[in-house]
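Morning!

As promised:
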Amino acid sequence: MKIRLFLFALLLFSKSFSQDLLNGKVSFINNENKLIPLEGVSIYWQESSVGVISDVNGNYSIPFIKSTNLLVFKMLGFKEDVVTINKIINYDHILTNESNNLDEVVVSKRKNTIQKSYFKTQNIVNVSSDELLKAACCNISESFETNPSIDVSYSNAITGVKQVRMLGLESPYLLITEENIPMVRGASQVFGLSFIPGTWVESMQITKGTGSVVNGFESISGQINVELKKPINDSPIFLNLFSSDMGRNEMNFDLNKKINERINTGFFLHLNENNSIHDHNSDGFLDHPKSKGFNIFNRWQYTNTDKGVVGFLGFRFMKDEKDSGEDVDNMKVKRLPWLSEINTNRFDSNFKLGYVNPKIPYQSVGFQMAYSNHKQESFFGLRNYNIKQNSFYSNFIYNSIIGNTLNKFKAGLNYSYDDFEEFIDADKTIYNRVDKSIGSFFEYSYDSLEKLSLVAGLRYDFHNNLGSFFTPRFHIRYQPLEKSVFRFSIGSGRKSSNIFSENQGLFSTGRKIYIDNNSGNFYGLESEKAWNYGISFRQGFFLNNQEGDITIDYYVTDFENQVVVDWEKQGELHFYNLEGKSFAKSFQIELDYQISNTIILKSAYKNYIVKKQYNSGFKQNPLTPKNRFFTNIDFSSKLNKKGSFWRYDITYNWVGKQRLPLHSMHSSLVSLNGFSPSYNLINTQLTRVFSSRFEVYIGGENIGNYTQKNPILDSKKPFGINFDSSLIYAPIHGSLIYIGLRLKL
Amino acid sequence: MKYLFVLLFFIGSFVYSQEIDHKTTNTSFKVSGVCDMCKLRIEKGTVKIKGVKYASWDIDSNNLSIIYNSKKINLDNIHKKISELGHDTEIHKANEKVYKSLPECCYYKTLTIH
């Protein structure tokens, strides 16, 4: 009764706003090329309850509503059409037979490439592969520049890898999973995202705030899940070529083959190489490393819909080499050059099996298993750093319901094993560690299919180094009106502290490393623990007959334990347990608006207060801008008859001032007064889609050509104590132009 | 001891869910409707009937597949409750007054399917 009343009220509501009627006639063309009126066609405004049916003569008359301009024509045996109608006119429509495969041009609503749901309980943003195309190059770590939820910061001049942050916290505080298997962690923390080629990705899900208990206890400020392409629905042959004027060349080549009705296989190859030498700021150091690498992935998919079984088996091997440091050939003084090399080998294999009872579709069982071996051998000047990690992960999940499908639950078990072997020669130490944990979880979710839904999860883990503990996580969503939704979440998370692998950028400095505690299980330090809670409000609106929404988020991460990475003191790098407060408060207001049928605007303002207690005082984290502004405009022209169109997008980022430690020690920083200047960044890209099979793109990064003047401090004395390549607040290299193509067969 | 606790936590929830699945019956029948709006109405309305565990309605075939606990409710009663939502089933017809209150796009009676 309530539902009916609600719908009825909705109907009245929409009607009361729209006394005006849109009239027209629906017909189709028969075999003799005659126009025949169609009776019984469903005509309704998309995502509304306002709809009518055409009469015997094909005539219809529908109330004009303000909430949408998309009118749907639907009839069994005919192709469904969606038409944009902006003003009251007489609109006659011709439906086509489903069997007629005409190259008809259908104007439809543009699918937003970043999708936020009104219905999901968690604050999850889905990023489609189309969105990833906006940042044509090249791997996942570079693909977030067009996404307002994630910030990209510049890491040091030596490694050249971009780091991601969410809610003001660095990537170690995020859980990064590949198809729900924890992936970028431990030894691969810094480079892991750059080892996932962008073209392998089908979609990404970004969860803000505390995650689900299903994937473990590690997520603190959020989760990024990457779904890779599935051989069963990927194109048989795919080729992507990329080249930039900075000398970077990349190639992706994918093959997918159907072996039989049940088995499909995919073979993915990625190659990259950059042999060029650039030193635009003339500090004697390369602006970006010389690099080469490859990445091969073979995956098998088994699908048996009759029995409800899906299985995946994958093997992957990658190798990456980076060389950087001083430009040896053009050195002006005769002395030992400062050089750096990072070589990585990684092998991954994973197995997944899912079973859905065909008779009882709400019951399913999933099993995942993954093994990886990660090896990095590197040196940074005179400092050597090697790390080996063997990792095993398994997860068993059982899904079912309590009473009916409005009440669902997931229950399961995890086991994970990691062994680390690290060698760092600054203090001539070998660190060996084994992390083992077994945990079990239960997650209940309730969905009223209306205003309210919630997810409550609890897990209990026994970990050899973290101890045994509960991890509770709770999400609730309340949607009082069709276009308004509130979300609240709270939960805890913990992690091992892999201080060296997570802070490799600080190796390229003359700093001496100090670990100030010695009683903990991690290099003498304690593990990290935090609570995250936050609210989010989203309001949809219609302006000028176009859809848009405003989202306001406020999240707080409160650390109970944290390893403080302190480089406030000249020549020293300290790691110590937090004593006192540490928090990250993030506020974000975001606007999404479809300006016209071809243009989508996204804009966001972000404010981060990330403070912790250092030995030298309570301060904002260094190199963490308090304010950021983001705008992305995405233009897509209409399809012409041959299926070709243009796609264009431009991203503008304003990055506010950032606190710089040690400003008084370096002559080049004194004038900055302890804060970096704010700056603007513009990236843009133009794509010509010739057909669904072939497209060519050209783009520019940092086209305003803003660069940091002195990225390396004391670059003339690289073996001295004041040498520092970690104070990077802006791009090191200026504008960059790239071109590329994509071919699908 | 700790491992045992983890295991019990898991087995407990597993056993509980298995136990409730003994008395389930699968069936499917035709329910009249035309659009996505109807789909939402029918599925939401059906799954909220006490004893019904699962409901899925297909627009093209008008077939409603349900799983229910036959000890809690009989099939005739389910048909009746669905017809009260305004949608005809093979056994019970919807009350004219309720039918009239349906969203206009759900007026399946005036629609002729080819």
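Residues 5-18, 100-108 of chain A have pLDDT under 50 and may be disordered.

Hope this helps with the figure draft.
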